[in-house]
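Sequence only, no structure available. Ideas?
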Amino acid sequence: MKEKLLSGFRATLGAEIVRTVAKGVLTVSLARLFLTPDEYGILFLAISVFSASLLCSRLGIPRSTARYIAEYRETDPGQVPYLVRSSLLFLGIVMLIVAAAVTVFHQLLADLFGEPELAPLLLLGGVYISAWTLNSYVHTLFQGFNRITWSARVTIITNASTLLSVVALLLTGSGVIGALTGYIIGYALGAVYGLVLLYRLVAEFDRASEPEPGLRRRLIEYSLPLTVSDGANVVYKQVDTLLIGAFLTPAAVGYYVLAKQISDFVIAPASSLGFTVSPSYGEYKANGELEEAARMYETTFKHNVVFYVPAAAGLIVVADPLIRYVFGSEYLGAIPVIQVFALFIVFQSIDKITNDALDYLGRATHRAVSKGATGAFNFGLNLVLIPTIGVVGAAISTVVSYGIMVAVNIYLIHTELPISPRYLAKSVVMVSGIALSMALVVLLALPAATNIVSLLAVIGLGVTLWALFSVTSGLVDIHSVRS
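Reply:
I predicted one. Tokens follow.
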């Protein structure tokens, strides 16, 4: 089990590094070299519209299918081809309906936001939604097959081709339309590659003479709470952007999206770890090994906060020079948003190692309730805070709502596994002390950071202190890290 997890984690982390580097280069290139803040905001406002539409184009089908594949590939492999075929049929129907609707009503959507520049971007929405939906489908199914390295391949191909396509099209002078087309090409190439692999994988299973009675019904039924969870994700990740676009300016959208993208860069290791270990919780539970599952969650939680609490503290301290030297003075409005989102990074990292685990432990419905309730709360808070305090209000709303949701989900894990809340709390307290010490030293050294090189040196000092404190306190075993 340990070797399987490590292999999957290495592959997923490698893919996340490629994704993070590709998105980082794209973010800096788009914001610094090719697009103005208004154009940057318009591009990602369009992508937010598409991302919100993806809720309806998937309906929780990929994750529901992955859950049943993980079960049936062990108990009744002959049902796996029926699962894949049925899910593809359901997915194709809803995907095409949503894609057609966005394409047909693209002008109406642009008018709702009062942004005429959105219309030509939204016209490409059908193609974007179809490519992204299929890409997400194959990536998630490989997790259900426990072929984590295959999911990693799809991620690498998608992000590498997206980077090359976007930059190549921008260099031709095609502007915002070219950037969006580059994203579509990247998702489409990853989807095609994944579908080819999926076809070969399913061909290895001998199909049963007929599908198990009620199999398709259970597949759809389990997708419903997952759809609620996905809907809450849309609220957390996209609706705030849409509301900023409706209440404020495209430049404000640009500030907010930039801050979110920076937080997304930092979250890559937690995404890799959570994606890798989640199927194992289902295996442990099926075998009655709850103690082992609890120890795995506690260890994962400890190493997660060891990294992310200090990272959040450091980001709060260096947000100003980071934006000033990397993205330029046009994006200084993003600084307070980034500082608020530092707390969001901590909550999101914990969610990454908890969220999918609840699905594989059979608690998708309860997780959906917590996520749906806090998502509705987030939406209402956004309606109050965005018009009153602007783009920072959206960040505050997300942090408060996400923190409540994470607390509830940890409680749900505790009801399933015999984890020790005292152990988790002790890890957080010890790491917080390290983070405060590191941040204080960085803050004192920050006046010496007068350019990007000296800023990197100050950040390096902070990282060195973090590593030293973490090892000497016993939170990190250097021998285990080296091995």
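The mean pLDDT is 80.
Hope that gets you unstuck.
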